[in-house]
Design brief:
This protein is of the alpha/beta class. It is built from six helices and twelve strands. Helix content is about 30%, strand content about 30%. It binds inosinic acid and magnesium ion.
Amino acid sequence: MTSELRDVINHWVFTPLSDDIISEFTQLVRPSRLWSLKSGSAPYLCLTHKQIPDDEKGYKLDLFCVPKHYEEDLDQVIIPHGLIMDRTERLARDIVRDMGGHHIVALCVLKGGYTFFADLLDYIKALNQNSDKSVPLTVDFIRLKSYCNDQSTNIVKVIGGDELSTLTGKDIVETGRTMETLLSLLSECNPKMVKVVSLLVKRTPRSSGYRPDYIGFEVPDLFLVGYALDYNEYFRDLSHICILNENAKEKYKV
Ligand code: IMP
Ligand code: MG
């Protein structure tokens, strides 16, 4: 087994992989457990997360409850709240399995990560209360800001946060720049271990190649709102993850 393949298996590394590695890997793992996808020209392999395809139709808004004040602003629901919760429950189980015994300082990356963080910690707490393996937890918060309208400003502003972390809870990784900035900041504190869990990772050619350790869903290159993801601070009060329409981008532009 090559060391590249061992990395994939041991650490769920999620980087562009050569065709040779993919074929070596597919001989070891049942094809039904694999998704192979294209990002730019490089194929990726993924073992663990739900991939939402580019042609995902989503769900019509009127199938679910959406606040009246946002009805005109959204195209579809792409990830309903119940599905987010079900996936988060499984992420919690994977984390407790991997981290059992370690003390975790769970670091919430605000503002977009707050709902996911709270729900993830609730599931971890429930497992702690009901299983043999448990993870001692303390929490901390940091606020990062880099977006204006639907574009990255290229400047990642850090607001607050004074403790180091082993598990950081994040809303979405697009280019990966925000997370890379945070990781370099955290490395100055010499933590024993840092693991990143992000509910969403965007499939985009703008990606730096950075992949979190735990991923909820991989999503198309669209601007998404809801479940604390915002557009200029709007839409955090929406439970489902939805696609923002073009009118709304104008309406809430700053
Ligand atoms: P990155 O630095 O490009 O990885 O961007 C990460 C940050 O950009 C996230 O924490 C969000 O604040 C913001 N972001 C990126 N894509 C979206 C989106 O589709 N909706 C809302 N915020 C987003
Ligand atoms: Mg934002």
